[in-house]
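Problem: given the chain below (156 residues), write out its structure.
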Amino acid sequence: MHKICTDIVIETPINEVWDLLTDFDNFETWNPFITKIKGKLEIGSKLDVHLHPPGTKGVDITPVLTKIEPVNEFRWKGNLWVKGIFDGEHAFRLEELENGRTRLIQCERFKGILAPLILYVVGEKTRAGFEKMNASLKNECEKRNRQGLTQCVPSA
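Solution.
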């Protein structure tokens, strides 16, 4: 099994980070990697997701939400083409830190017959996409936090 994991510390309380991270309708306003998510934040819900790793034209996937632990974690499982070829489980975890800070951990575990080959081709671009998303989430939340707003939601 192969995996890509990244993390970042955000100078914003966990509930505000969670609010932005789960506001799927507004991902396109701040997120350069996951530019679209349509669907409900409910276990078993099928999502319509557009991933746009840097240097690629992007890809559409339809994962299913498999875990939701409010304010702490959500994850989905999906695949390209047919199950067993290139499957992934993506997780977004938040850890509450002292002084109103939050750590975001974004990981994906890949498996399947073509996982090594596909990751050889797009693995570093995918990691770069995770890191760009993490930085954008951090910037948006901290900007809202500095402005003294009570919710970390995208600005117009």
